[in-house]
């Protein structure tokens, strides 16, 4: 992700970010006063994200809403605003009170990121730290582009996170959907 302003570090307010994002044809993240352009995805990344969104929609529970990468998520505790590859809210959708357009959700129960060479380190580190600050979040899924591999974090009642790796079969998410690895990775573009 590239910063909008490279010379000197202009710190944008969240309101300035929302106005900038509203008028932009590209998507940007907001992190600690910086507006960061989102990297474009490969064909393989896009196909995986599309299939994941399809699985989420096809097997979602009643009362849950699946979103694809155009839905912005803001972590109120840290201020980060980002666009995960897929997300889900169960129950009422809560929107960011600072976003009058109501285009930003704050209570996803599930977040999914397709790992890219340019974003994997951030998805595993900085974003994962931010995502853990979302009280409603129960699951975080990272999907590899390079091999049939899904990494799954699930919040336990104690607040700790359980981690598992799935490389065959299917991953059944606590919020309902099932991610079938054979179908997910079948005939992907290079």
Proportion in helices: 10-25%
- Fold-level CATH name of the largest domain: tt1808, chain A
How many separate structural domains? 2
User: What is the percentage of strand-forming residues?
Assistant: 25-35%
Our count of helices gives 5
Structural class: alpha+beta
Strand order of the largest sheet: 4-7-9-10-11-12
The top-level CATH class of the largest domain is Alpha Beta
Terminal CA distance: 23 Å
Quaternary class: single chain
Rounded mean pLDDT score: 93
Strand segment tally? 14
CATH architecture of the largest domain: Alpha-Beta Complex
Which spans of ≥5 residues are poorly predicted at pLDDT below 50?
1-7
**Molecular shape:** globular
Radius of gyration: 16 Å
CATH superfamily of the largest domain: tt1808, chain A
Largest sheet: 6 strands, mixed
N-to-C SSE series?
Answer: EHEEHEEEEEEHHEEEEEH
Overall description:
- The protein is α+β, with helices and mostly antiparallel strands and 190 residues long.
- It folds into two domains: 1-38, no CATH class; 41-185, Alpha-Beta Complex (tt1808, chain A).
- It has helices at 14-22, 43-58, 120-124, 126-131, 181-185, and strands at 2-3, 28-31, 34-37, 64-68, 72-74, 81-82, 86-90, 104-105, 110-114, 139-143, 150-155, 161-166, 170-172, 178-180.
- A six-stranded mixed β-sheet has the order 4-7-9-10-11-12.
- A hairpin with a 6-residue loop joins β10 and β11 (150-155).
- The protein is globular and about 45 Å long.
- It starts with a strand and ends in a 5-residue tail after the last helix.
- The model is unreliable at 1-7 (pLDDT under 50).
């Amino acid at each position: 992700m590239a910063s909008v302003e490279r010379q000197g570090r202009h710190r944008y307010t969240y309101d300035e970010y929302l106005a900038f994002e509203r008028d932009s044809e590209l998507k940007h993240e907001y992190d600690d006063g910086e507006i960061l352009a989102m990297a474009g995805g490969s064909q393989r990344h896009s196909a995986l994200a599309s299939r994941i969104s399809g699985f989420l929609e096809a097997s979602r529970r009643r009362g849950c809403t699946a979103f694809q990468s155009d839905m912005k998520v803001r972590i109120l505790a840290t201020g980060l605003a980002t666009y995960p590859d897929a997300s889900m809210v169960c129950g009422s959708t809560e929107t960011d009170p600072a976003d009058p357009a109501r285009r930003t959700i704050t209570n996803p129960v599930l977040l999914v990121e397709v790992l890219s060479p340019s974003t994997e380190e951030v998805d595993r580190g900085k974003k994962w730290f931010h995502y853990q600050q979302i009280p409603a979040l129960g699951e975080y899924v990272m999907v590899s582009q390079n091999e049939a591999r899904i990494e799954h974090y699930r919040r336990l009642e104690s607040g700790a996170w359980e981690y598992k790796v799935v490389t065959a079969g299917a991953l059944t998410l606590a919020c309902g959907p099932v991610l079938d690895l054979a179908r997910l990775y079948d005939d992907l573009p290079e």
